[in-house]
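Build the 3D complex.
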Amino acid sequence: MCLIKELPLLLPPALLALFVYFYLAGSKRKRPNLPPGGRGWPLLGETIGYLKPHSATSTGEFMVQHIRRHGKIFKSNLFGGPTIVSADAGLNRFVLQNEGRLFECSYPKSIGGILGKWSMLVLVGEMHQTMRMISLNFMSSARLRDVLLPEVERHTLMVMSSWKEGVAFSAQEEAKKFTFNLMAKNIMSMEPGDPETEQLRMEYITFMKGVVSAPVNLPGTPYWKALKSRANILRVIEKKMEQRTEGCEKRVEEDDLLGWALKQSSLSKEQILDLILSLLFAGHETSSMALALIIFFLEGCPKAVQHLREEHQDIVKKKMERGEAAGLNWEDYKQMEFSQCVINEALRLGNVVRFVHRKAIQDVSYGGYDIPRDGKSCRCSQRSIWTPNFTPSRTNSSHGGGS
Ligand code: HEM
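Done.
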């Protein structure tokens, strides 16, 4: 009787004690061993620091400070969620080698908004494979040899002939113009210098500023402007598609990616638009940055420039001795061993793609740390090992010396 009377008084502390017990027991059991790191601001986390622009020849303040404080594997809060960031070569290799089994591609939602939900950077599984096969079949080695190589040479000569003696120009801008024109030609048969191509290029510049900005969709922000440019670019691609599909019997078959994708009848209009836009992005941004980096590194390495010049002059001399036409062919390209070393070394030192984003699809353990399933993504920094001297010969033992 007495106990019943006291029950209302005893019950709350008893329930509280039970709750604390189960909470502690549960958290002890489930708490994963995450790498060290911080959380940053509520909601924003450390996203602003992560997105802060930095030179492509540096690792960036965000990575430098975090690695110094926590080591090469650390936790953070990026794009609204807990994230594990890795600059560790072993973990990066492990993540990429286990693609599809333990990890899958997982870019922030804002990337999907900009590149489109059918972009290869957003898709996973079967649809990703389909889109990849379409792109790879288009970029077959036969096409690279017979179509792309002569096109690259034509565009290179065109850009170089526009340079005036004694007039300074931005190598990066020229690299961007060159790769954009090359991609626009191969993707939609658009000619360099045409008003339509130039207008598309301007839209693309605005678009690109948004891809690498904070995903704030408010009037006037770079992200908002980029979404508008995306719509304008898609309108141009759509118009091209309509021109090709109307009056089918009369139309000229263009040997470009758009023509190729239109032949793949299983793809919808929306899918083709996203495929074209994301390939324009994937091919242009990366190659132009790589070209600019090569020029940057060569400027500080006269010995490598001399080596390159000798390699190319030697190829030209031998072609002339054989009585071959002047144009570059696949055999000439294959002889450019040192040129390939220069490209490899610039890609090793430069930061073309700063991060690849992956999500663990099951609980994973690596090096004593736990990478929990889902919610936590793993962003791997490309530059895991950094040796700051530009030394192209390091990638080929037959070439002695370097810078
Ligand atoms: C120096 C030049 C380039 C670099 C450094 C580069 C780098 C990369 C990287 C790191 C990825 C992986 C992204 C990820 O899985 O999260 C990627 C994917 C991709 N790149 Fe490139 N890329 C270059 C040139 C190109 C070019 C010229 C094209 C096409 C014309 C291209 C088309 C693609 C496509 C379609 C994907 C997605 C593949 C997939 O998800 O299966 N890239 N690139």
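The first helix runs from residue 2 to 30.
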